[in-house]
Amino acid sequence: MSDTTEPTGLRVRIMRQGGRAAQLLSHLCSGAFTGRLEAAFDGTPTWNGRRSCLLLSFDVDFPEDADVLPQLVEQLASMQGKASFAVVGRWVEDYPDEHRAVLEAGHELVNHSYSHPELVNVPGRFVSRRDDLNPRRWETLSIQEKAAEIAQCQQAVQGTLGVDLAGFRAPHFGNVDPRPLYPILNELGLSYSTSMLATRGRQLGVPVMEGDVVEIPVSTCPQHPLSSLDTWHGLYAHGGWHLQDFGEVLAQRLRTADASGGITNIYLDPKDVSRIDMVPVFEALADLRDDCWVATYSEFATWFRAECAT
């Protein structure tokens, strides 16, 4: 699998620029923008022999996310394939049993920094029981501080659970350029990153090799194509864009990927999964059956790297 020429055109320029005006335009013309994102998959081969691919992940940002991990992995037991869990090093140290339950169920842990900078309580939306959160913005950290956050998370997980993490997701990555981090990831032995929205990806939503690191872009909302398809967007932003139908929107994303031969790469917050009707998602996966490869990031990155080498 080789990279092609970078996508161009007005819709791509608008998506890359971002901003309020671009957000509004993408909402009004969501079909046109989603169509451009899906067109990026034209000509791509099958994903490990399947027409589409689901990379389901969960961001364990708060202690309250860690609390529900044992119940969440039980809920996922009936799903074909495994999921990936982006974990915060200090919470792994404080709540080892909850994180160990993820590993025992066969799922993957992903480096999500040691302290998750810009983790704040927002009264009226969510307030954690912990008041020792890190309020610093990720993009204000120096490159050395970011490297220390990533390395310390690796050490915390290895020291607590005996696991070497294979990949990384940046905190609040939506408007942050992850490319300066690739040499750090490479030095720490991290083989992939999933820290870029599909709208900003070099090949939009198509994964690419960035040196020795596989970058796996995160999918955006079919109805709001400049926004990540995550629980913050669905349940909190603007009072919750998809408060009543988030499960249906996730299922729609899976069917769109099947039609385009694309990838669905989404992340949810564990503490909020109980607020989502996941029945449409599992029904869509059952309908797609062997047409959709459900994989962890490590499984996907290993396969993708081998494909790029051929």
Structural class: alpha/beta
Mean pLDDT: 90
Tally of strands: 9
The global form is globular
Stretches where pLDDT is under 50 for at least 5 consecutive residues are 10-16
End-to-end separation in angstroms reads 7 Å
Give Rg in angstroms: 18 Å
Which CATH architecture is right? Alpha-Beta Barrel
CATH class designation: Alpha Beta
For CATH, the homologous superfamily is named as Glycoside hydrolase/deacetylase
Strand content: 5-15%
- How many distinct helices? 13
Largest sheet: 5 strands, parallel
Order of helices and strands: HHHEHHEHHEHEHEEEHHEHEH
Quaternary structure annotation: single chain
How would you describe what is shown here?
- By secondary structure, this protein is of the alpha/beta class.
- It has one domain: Alpha-Beta Barrel (TIM Barrel).
- It has 13 helices and 9 strands.
- The strands form 2 sheets. Strands 1, 2, 3, 8 and 9 form a 5-stranded parallel β-sheet that branches. It has a 4-stranded mixed β-sheet with strand order 4-5-7-6.
Considering the chains and any ligands shown, give keywords for the structure.
310 residues; alpha/beta; TIM Barrel; five-stranded parallel β-sheet; four-stranded mixed β-sheet; globular
